Amino acid sequence: MEWMKKISSDKMLVGLVSLAAVGMAFIYLGKGPIAPPQSEQTQSAVTTVASPTTKIGVLEKELESKLQTNILMMEGVGKVQVSVNFLTGLKSEYVRNNNVTKRTNKETDKTGGTRETTEITENHQVVMPNGASQPVIAMEDRPEIGGVLVIAEGARDPKVREGIHTAVQTLLNIESARITVVPMGGV
């Protein structure tokens, strides 16, 4: 009878170990697939998307820099941070070669009736210089400015804040409601 106790305790031990292994497997599998760490190549691709590589992004950065340079020269302003946002993109009008052809046909049938038809063909081709990949631009319109944010140390003073506001409004020729000037704070 002792051997039966030994066998049953061995079976119980094997059962407990098996149960623990199955439990651990469920815990591990329950976490779902583990995402592999991002490679350096993926991280740099994400960073490049945020940089201003588009024409609009470059224009925004250029305008911010020009505004910041002008505002920094004003008395009492201190440190300045400028952000500009465009509502629209660049608008370009291209030179076109416009051809209009008008052709009229008069037909008379056996009973004496006449029928007149007019066919008009219009062709408005964009002019491309020989060997060029870009068409000839007749006019290029600036994008519409959506808003300007100026953060300046000296903006706590109402006179400095008003001066910055007026300068931005004058330089960009935009309505007052699209300009916000706030004092710099924090770190």
From TrEMBL:
Top-rank lineage group of the source organism: Bacteria
Task: Provide this UniProt record's keywords sorted from A to Z.
Answer: Membrane, Transmembrane, Transmembrane helix
So where does this one cross the membrane? 12-30
What is the designated name of this protein?
Answer: Stage III sporulation protein AG
